[in-house]
TrEMBL record:
Domain Helicase HerA-like C-terminal residue range list: 35-482
Name of protein: Helicase HerA-like C-terminal domain-containing protein
Pfam families: HerA_C
């Protein structure tokens, strides 16, 4: 038996921050809940990122819900990427039951059922705040990453953007970009302008770019690119002192990997480029929760992992914390895992040799402890229990503690359709972004220019019509490669999401 008095004294000395903090639960020792020991996290270290891991059914989503609730209480807004679609219940008050009563009797904490301020968001046309961005705001480098272009094609994309800048051709949506490609490829004047100022470009390369754009459109990107573009500062709202929980429902991510990547690249880049440096502000400005993080990291290239690691390091200075939720810590690469200050580890199951290796690896990443046989206990943690280690106010890792987690105060279930409709109908943000704006841009300008050129060149005398050869643009759009490209991409869709966390910024 461990020395209980010594344990209580040591844990209280390390989990009692002087500044603002949130509470996750109570410490446990030898299976007993110790209400004398709060497991707390200082708000000033929340931007040091973290991991919530555990096998299916061990309570990760409820822990995420508690975390978001506690941040909201502290006036800190969050953005939750709700992959499974089971998080929206945070907008409604929870209900007391025997299980919750038992849990709160053990913790000796008060249970106060309540709803939290919520904004539902979408990138795929569902009910909620429509998230959009313009092609110009992405810029050639970021857009090239989304489209999976090689170095040569990326340089061509940069030339196309430069051409549009010089010629006053606004790139708002994908129709604008396609029209520009058509103009500089199939139109005599357009080809001459491009060649005169920027050099000749191989039609095959332009065709490859066009096919990538068509594939992205098939995943719903047509609705994503446009105006009004989303202002990331709208993520920072509070209501009645509570931070707003912004929920992006992306349950169809498997069918829209590139569209999801598009949003994430836009969001992270915009936050990094527009948020000011925070320094030691005392609490985070925004916290991002990325559920099912293995969808990001599976089969990631070295280049992508480097970009993710860089983003995790840099965005911290903007007062933003990033939290990955996944089944095993091994889903997160070592270089990223080492940057995560808070680790909440639910039970792991050692059914196979590979599982046992993951358990060993997870335990090795924890601070050593004399109070727990971590390798054994990690396989026997109950639902709603987790190992926790964090950073104290000085940035020093806290002791590993078995934690009896508190329950969410909001509903532990999803909103029904009627509740979603009611929530979104009352939202000022939904109204702000609901209607798309179609300003005059490259598509309209070049269409008018091309029509005028056709009218000017029309013959004054009747002549035998000459059958024109289809241009490259038309050929790509009608080719079997153009039609089947999307099907091929969908089969390889899981790989496409790995391009999601690049750096860049919007150009205003």
């Amino acid at each position: 038996m461990a020395d209980k008095a010594k344990f209580i004294e040591e844990l209280n000395s390390r989990y009692s921050p002087k500044g603002e903090h949130i509470i996750l639960g109570k410490a446990m020792l030898d299976g007993e809940v110790l209400p004398e020991v709060n497991v707390t996290i200082p708000l000033k270290t929340i931007n040091r990122h973290g991991l919530i891991a555990g096998a299916t059914g061990t309570g990760k989503t409820k822990t995420l819900q508690v975390f978001a609730e506690q941040l909201s209480h502290a006036g800190v807004p969050s953005l939750v990427l709700d992959i499974k679609g089971d998080f929206s219940g945070i907008a409604e008050a929870g209900t007391r039951n025997a299980i919750i009563d038992e849990r709160y009797n053990k913790t000796q904490l008060a249970y106060e059922p309540q709803a939290f301020p919520v904004e539902l968001m979408t990138i795929s046309g569902e009910k909620g705040v429509k998230l959009r961005a313009t092609v110009t705001e992405f810029g050639p480098i970021l857009l090239s990453k989304i489209l999976g272009l090689n170095d040569t094609q990326q340089s061509i994309m940069s030339i196309v953007f430069k051409y549009c800048d010089d010629k006053g051709l606004p790139l708002i949506d994908l129709d604008d970009l396609k029209k520009v490609l058509q103009y500089v490829t199939d139109n005599k004047d357009g080809k001459a302008e491009l060649a005169a100022s920027y050099g000749s470009i191989a039609p095959a390369s332009l065709g490859a770019i066009l096919r990538s754009i068509v594939a992205l459109e098939q995943q719903g990107a047509t609705a994503f690119f446009g105006e009004p573009s989303f202002d990331v500062h709208d993520l920072l709202q509070t209501r009645d002192g509570k931070g707003v929980v912004n929920i992006l429902r992306v349950a169809n991510i498997q069918n829209q990997p590139q569209l999801f990547s598009t949003f994430m690249l836009s969001l992270f880049a915009e936050i990094y480029m527009t948020f000011p440096e925070e320094g030691d502000s005392g609490k985070p400005k925004l916290v991002l929760f990325i559920d099912e993080a293995h969808l990001i990291f599976n089969e990631a290239s070295k280049t992508l992992l480097s970009q993710i690691e860089t983003m995790v390091k840099l965005i911290r200075s903007k007062g933003v914390g990033i939290y990955f939720i996944t089944q095993i810590p091994g889903d997160v690469p070592e270089n990223v895992l080492s940057q995560l200050g808070l680790k909440i580890q639910h039970a792991l199951r050692g059914f196979t040799a590979k599982d046992k290796k993951e358990i060993t690896k997870a335990v090795e990443n924890y601070p050593t402890t004399e109070y727990y046989n971590a390798a054994n206990l990690i396989q026997n943690l109950g639902i709603g229990e987790a190992f926790v280690t964090a950073l104290d106010e000085k940035g020093i890792p806290t002791p590993l503690v078995q934690t009896y987690l508190i329950s969410p105060e909001s509903r532990m279930d999803v909103l029904n359709d009627a509740e979603v409709s009611e929530l979104t109908s009352k939202s000022a943000m939904v109204a702000k972004y609901e209607q798309s704006i179609n300003k005059e841009s490259a598509f309209e300008i070049l269409s008018q220019r091309m029509n005028q050129a056709v009218e000017t060149a029309a013959p004054t005398q009747k002549t035998k019509p000459i059958k024109e050869e289809p241009g490259m643009f038309e050929s790509v759009m009608k080719s079997s490669a153009g039609r089947t490209f999307t099907n091929t991409l969908m089969r390889e869709g899981a790989k496409a999401i790995l391009g999601m966390l690049g750096l860049g910024g919007r150009r205003r």
